[in-house]
UniProtKB/TrEMBL annotation:
InterPro entries: Cu-oxidase-like_N, Cu-oxidase_2nd, Cu-oxidase_C, Cu-oxidase_fam, Cu_oxidase_CS, Cu_oxidase_Cu_BS, Cupredoxin, CuRO_3_CopA. Residues 66-165, 173-319, 369-475 form the Plastocyanin-like domain. Keywords: Copper, Metal-binding, Oxidoreductase. CDD domains: CuRO_1_CumA_like, CuRO_2_CopA_like_1, CuRO_3_CopA. SUPFAM superfamilies: Cupredoxins. It comes from Rubrobacter xylanophilus. The keyword Secreted does not apply. This is Putative oxidase (Copper-binding protein). One of its GO terms (molecular function) is oxidoreductase activity. Pfam families: Cu-oxidase, Cu-oxidase_2, Cu-oxidase_3.
């Protein structure tokens, strides 16, 4: 394939920088035009929120559940603002433990990133902390606690950043927050970790493949018996923002009676691709649109992969007010149809990483294995358990590549803080994401990013239990 005009200009502009490749020049990215994190223009608007993290009671599946959450609700309140706005959140810790908030997916300044012991001192019970930053880029994100297993309680919510100018055409939007739930219904997250450890990693999937069965799966805090209902009108274009802050569950999502056109992966635009169903890993987000052209009442299903049970919501056409919903155990046939893969996703941002052959390749490559089990429940990156682990050093301006190889029997949603990365896949223009699944049994994944946000950044598995046992590293700007 020939070069587009833009690619050609890009290469010409990079010739000088390419000479510095492989060396340890002081700022080897200088002069190169790499696709770093987008920066929005400041709007000057400030959005203020108070988030009280506190114990709360909520009802799901006919049980009263005692848990921890924000502002008395699960999920926490949706935060919605425009790119370029300033977000100011006062976090008040009314929990019996330390806590923090992480703005999952957003490349915020390092001190605002919410990682205890890495970017800030955790906030003690009774204390407050103010997070404040300019929101740099539109998309669908998550905010959540980054302390211990608190994510597997109710300490999460959706963070929606609208673009300065919307260029997606839709009439109506809903946000679906998917979760696996055990807190108060099957002990606490700490009990769950004890069970995993006692099993020596033998629970569920066998050696090293220990997995948690959850008593409940929720959409927007609602169990399948009492689902959230989303109304649409015939003829509308409907946008769904899907977010998965669950601790331990990959969901397969499908909308009964409709195909889904995927428009964004982890908040970043991709070339629209139409599928029947998609997998959404822990920490991932997808935006989809569909035409409301099939009146009735349909099920929006999130089936937990490899586990019993179901999360669901309902899609109800105004025109079909009287129809009754499909039974909860009837899975839409779309779940068995064409499933989105990373190879189907093509970046639709302005700039991608250029072909290595033309540029000489990245400045720095880390090849890392993912492993676990070995008779005890612990998960490692390249054989090391955080915090007893080497830094992954980078320098500002570098083009960095991570190549990950999964030597274990479980899938690992690997998440990088502070940066978007571009998946290297067959399309040559993989999507920009911040979280990506590395498949079990020698699954392989490679991605590139520009080191353009100095600081100490967490890189870890977004399975909360894997993270808790050590599956993390710090990417450090030397
Ligand atoms: Cu959403 Cu380090 O996490
Ligand atoms: Cu993992």
């Amino acid at each position: 394939p020939g070069l587009s005009r833009r690619e050609f200009l890009g290469i010409a502009g990079m010739a000088a920088g390419a000479l510095a490749l492989g060396g340890c020049g002081p700022f080897s990215g200088g002069g190169r035009d790499l696709p770093g994190s987008p920066q929005a223009r400041r709007t000057g608007e400030t959005r203020e929120h108070l988030l009280r993290a506190a114990p709360l009671e909520f009802e799901a599946g006919g049980q009263r559940l005692l848990t921890w959450g924000y502002e008395g609700d699960v999920p926490g309140p949706e935060i919605r603002l425009k790119e370029g706005d300033t977000l100011r959140v006062r976090l008040r810790n009314e929990l019996p433990e330390e806590t923090t908030i992480h703005w999952h997916g957003l490349p915020v300044p390092n001190a605002m990133d919410g990682v205890p012991g890495v970017t800030q001192r955790p906030i003690s019970p009774g204390e407050e902390f103010v997070y404040e930053f300019v929101v740099p880029v539109a998309g669908t994100y998550i905010y959540h606690s980054h302390v211990g297993l608190q994510l597997d309680r109710g300490l999460y919510g959706a963070l929606i950043v609208e673009p300065a100018k919307e260029n997606l055409d839709y009439d109506r939007e809903y946000v679906l927050v998917l979760d696996d739930w055990l807190d108060g219904a099957g002990g606490t997250p700490e009990d769950a970790l004890r069970r995993l450890r006692d099993s020596g990693g033998m629970m569920g999937g066998g050696m090293g493949g220990a997995t948690l069965e959850y008593p409940l799966y929720l959409v927007n805090g609602r169990p399948p018996e009492d689902p959230a209902t989303f109304e649409v009108r015939r003829g509308e274009r409907v946008r769904l923002r899907l977010v998965n802050p669950s601790a331990e569950t990959v969901f397969r999502f499908a909308a009964g009676g409709h195909r889904l056109t995927v428009t964004h992966a982890d908040g970043q635009p991709v070339e629209p691709v139409t599928v029947d169903a998609l997998r959404i890993g822990m920490g991932e987000r997808y935006d989809v649109v569909f035409e409301a052209d099939n009146p009735g009442v349909h099920q929006l299903t999130a089936a937990p992969e490899g586990k019993e049970g179901l999360a669901r919501a309902l899609l109800r056409y105004r025109e079909s007010a009287a129809s009754s919903p499909p039974p909860a155990d009837l899975l839409p046939k779309e779940l068995r149809g064409k499933l989105l893969t990373y190879a189907d996703l093509k970046d639709a941002r302005e700039r991608s990483f250029p072909e290595d052959t033309l540029l000489g390749g990245p400045d720095r490559v880390y090849r890392l294995t993912l492993s676990g089990g070995h008779g005890s429940y612990a998960w490692a990156i390249d054989g090391q358990l955080y915090p007893d682990a080497d830094l992954l050093e980078v320098r500002e301006g570098e083009w960095v590549r991570f190549e990950l190889q999964n030597h274990s029997m479980m899938v690992h949603p690997m998440h990088l803080h502070g940066h978007f990365f571009q998946l290297r896949n067959d399309t040559g223009r993989g999507p920009f994401k911040d979280t990506a699944l590395v498949e079990p049994h020698m699954g392989h994944l490679a991605f590139d990013f520009v080191a353009d946000n100095p600081g100490e950044w967490f890189f870890h598995c977004h399975n909360a239990y894997h993270l808790e046992t050590g599956m993390a590293r710090v990417v450090s700007y030397g």
